[in-house]
Amino acid sequence: MRLNHLIGILLILFLIMVSPWTGQAREDQYEGLKRFSQVLHLIEDNYVHEKSREDLLQGAIEGMLQKLDPHSSFVSLDELRMMQEDFSGEFGGIGIQIGMRDNQLVVIAPIEDTPAHKAGLQPGDMILEINSKSTQGMSLTDAVRLIRGPKGEPVELTILSADDQKPRKVEIVRDTIPVHSVRIQELEPGYVQLRITDFKGNTTEDLKSEILKYASQKDLKGIILDLRNNPGGLLDQAVSVSDLFLDEGLIVYTQGRDQRQRKDYNATRSAADVTTPMIVLINAGSASASEIVAGALQDRNRALVVGENTFGKGSVQSIIPLSDGAAIKLTIALYYTPAGRSIQAEGIAPDLRIPFQRKTSAQSDPEHPALRESGLQMHLRNPDLREKDDQDLTDEVKEILEQDNQLRLALEILRSMPRIKELSYKKY
Question: Which residues are catalytic, by number?
Answer without folding.
Answer: 288, 299, 313
